[in-house]
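thread: overnight batch results

M.L. [08:02]
morning all. the overnight job finished for the chain we discussed friday. pasting input first so we're all looking at the same thing
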Amino acid sequence: MNNKGLAHMNQDLTPFQPQDDEIDLRELFATLWRGKWTIIAITFVFAVGSVIYSLSLPNIYKAEALLAPTEESSGGGLSAIAGQFGGLAGLAGINLGGGEANKTTIALELLQSRVFLTEFVEKHQLLPQIMAVKSWSPETGIVFDEEIYDVKTDTWVREVSPPQQQKQKPSSWVYVGRIKEMLTASQEKDTGLVTLSVEHQSPDFAQQLVELLVEEINITMRERDVVDAQNSLSYLNNELKNTNLSNMQQVFYQLIEKQTQTLMLTNVRPEYIFETIDPAVVPEEKSSPKRSLICILGTMLGGMLGIGLVLVRQAFKSEASDKANQRPGQYPT
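M.L. [08:03]
and the structure it wrote out:
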């Protein structure tokens, strides 16, 4: 084989050199520089839009109280004697409640329940302050939205569209959902302390609502325990008359004593379930919105969108240019 043939074979056996797909930073910066006005314009529009949006949001104030569960909230005297007399009481058909949830847990769940919040709003007539507030200022106080609620005639004039109920006054389904958005109740696992907070456009109303909620949950839990204690006393006294066993009589006397103690505490202790450690005060600084953060994020979003648009546009131009320069019958590399 001659030298020409060998040279031809060596040329055919030369390994394929892949095309360099690495990003050319100089070309990238040049593309961005050519599209700088597009990036600046989009960033400016987003920056102005974020400023206008942030200024349109009303100030929200947060009032909160720190509460401590009382001794009664952990189960009271019944839990103390549940282990001692649980077996004998079970034989008599009496449940001492040793395995039930403590009253703090029940109170926190009840505080956010639909039944409690519905009765709470109707009792204190808080519906306009929850559903029809337009703005608040120190000079004018709460200003109601006239398209929703007419203060002069005390009537609701809002327009309702399906699937909501066709009535102008908000239903419990609507305003309970609004209250749950405003209300936060949490308990620390380590200390057991409860934090109750309310967010609202009016700092005065937020503080008042926290105080009313604490007062109302104490009243509700007290009334529940009074009814339970009275029913238990009636049952225990009847059973005591019908038994001659000394052990069972001892159980009944202990239970009657604890139920009587419960009735006494409900009458002498206003803060029955939650004791206020740090009461709610009228907040002087807003908790939201974070306008500076909104403006920063909006501007960054506009800048990224502008850069992305410039790069995508350049990619389409490059692809169109490659197709235009491609010779007939030639496959793209």
